[in-house]
Amino acid sequence: MAETSLDGGDRAPVVMGGEPGSYARSVLTERHPALISRVRDAHPYTPAQRGRLDLLLEEITSGKVQPLRPEAHDRAVWESWGMDERTGVPWTALPFLWAESYFYRRLLGAVGYFAPGPWQGVDPFEPSKTSELRSSDADEEMQALDTVALLPSEERDRALLLSALWGNRADLGFALSERGGAPESAHGAPGQRGAPGGAGEGLVADESGRLWELLGDAERVCFVADNAARELLPDLALIDLLLTSRRVGSVVLHVKPHPYFVSDATMADVLAALRRLREAGGEAAACGGRLREAMRDGSLAVRAHPFSCAPLPYSAMPEDLEADFAASSLTVLKGDLNYRRLVGDRWWDPATPFAEAVGGFPSPVAALRTVKSDTVTGLDPVVAAELEAGGIGWRTSGRCAVVQVAG
After folding, report:
1. Which CATH number fits domain 23-122: 1.20.930, 2.60.40, 1.10.3470, 3.40.50?
2. Three-state DSSP state, 380
3. Could you tell me which residue, 340 or 390, shows the higher pLDDT?
4. Are 405 and 207 a contacting pair, CB within 8 Å?
5. Could you tell me which residues belong to the region Disordered (predicted)?
6. How far is CA 349 from CA 232, 261, 338, 354, 399, in A?
């Protein structure tokens, strides 16, 4: 695809990290330091690991961007993604998407995730993911599948779609920004239309009718996951629905190749979620069993492309990933980060048509997103005006959501 950088161009301006009072600045100056402290306590890290975390904390709070070490296995690819030109620049002077992505790469480097040795491949976020996956909230949501299974087909479909949509609030990174700790229940009772009522809350763009039309004819669907644990459980339930009752021939589930953005899903997280479903009993266990067999027979495939952890929009995706999406009848993108990458993480007027912001995605594409950052498109102009009149906070509260389709 044509666009290769987050910078410049004649489209809406890119979200930068330094605007005073902005969500982006709060992430870089508040969430990331808090996350380093949380990761420092997650495992019994060695003095050397803790020292590297302390140096990273000093760098992001009072210093400038430093490059990866010369021996880093992925130094060349990060150079191609603009690392050299951004070395020595204050973190808050960078495009937000790039700075946020690079921070997580540096965090993994600090704890030795990529280096040979006993800590290689140890997910620094695993304790939080496991705690959430084993929580009573997760128990209740899996038990709710017993009730959902008894609903008429249209109500069942709607319930599972909304469960996946609002499940995006179960985001461990988002919880760091929530006053008082973890966010409230992610999506409430099955079939709930939106978050609790009030101004600037709920499903503010709903093209689910078009989504179901596309799914009804789909031979192959790509489903790009966002978060692990409690969010991944309803995602898997929705995928099970697509395979069993919507006559979708196959699903390709895209996850991250390594830990990323606190709670993003990896293959290990998929396996953990499947085990959790199968242990739960009832309809949850049946769902987990069906998905396990779907993986065994190939109707559910899991992929982890390196570009899933790139600091770039989907308009800059490599040819092999573009071909994978192009071979699908529909690509479904979950979550806030995927949405930002889809529309370029820019300051669009929220009434800008979603298809215009998406550009030339290689397949029809649908976004299931709880709104948790500044980039928003595709709203009815009246709805957009009403939301904007209430202040910009609606973009980052996690109380609004969209189901949008292009193509």
Report:
1. 1.20.930
2. coil
3. 340
4. yes
5. 181-202
6. 31, 26, 19, 11, 19
pLDDT category at 247 given cuts 50, 70, 90 is confident
The helix (H) or strand (E) run that includes residue 122 is none
**What average pLDDT is seen over the chain?**
89
Establish whether domains 23-122 and 128-406 are of one fold.
no
Give tens-digit pLDDT for 15-67.
999 988 889 999 999 999 999 999 999 999 999 999 999 999 999 999 999 99
Q: What is the DSSP string of 205-267?
A: EE-HHHHHHHHHT-SEEEEE--B-HHHHHHHHHHHHHHHHTS---EEEEE-BSS--TTTB-BH
72 Ramachandran zone, left/alpha/beta (phi>0; psi -120 to 50): beta
Assess whether pLDDT exceeds 60 at residue 8.
no
| 3-class secondary-structure state, position 186 | coil
Q: What is the pLDDT of residues 117-150, one digit of tens each?
A: 999 999 999 999 999 999 999 999 999 999 999 9
User: Rounded CA gap, 236 and 218, in Å?
Assistant: 18
CATH fold of 128-406 = Rossmann fold (3.40.50)
Q: Are 286 and 253 a contacting pair, CB within 8 Å?
A: no
Count of CB atoms within 10 A of residue 85's CB?
9
Q: Which residues contact 255 (CB under 8 A, 6 or more apart)?
A: 225, 264, 265, 266, 267, 269, 270, 302, 303, 304, 308
Among candidate residues 406, 301, 402, 310, the one with its CA nearest the CA of residue 363: 406
Residue that wins the pLDDT comparison between 200 and 22 = 22
Give the start-to-end residue ranges of the domains of the chain. 23-122, 128-406
**Pair 265, 225: CB distance under 8 Å:** yes
Distance CA 319, CA 150 (A): 43
H-run or E-run covering 332 = strand 330-334
User: What was the pLDDT predicted at 48?
Assistant: 97
Cβ atoms of residues 90 and 17 within 8 Å = no
* Cα 128 from chain centre: 16
Could you tell me if 263 and 173 are in contact, meaning their C-beta atoms sit under 8 angstroms apart? yes
CA dihedral over 2, 350, 354, 170, signed as positive or negative: positive
Helix runs in 254-305, H state only: 267-280, 282-297
Amino acid (one-letter) located at 116: P
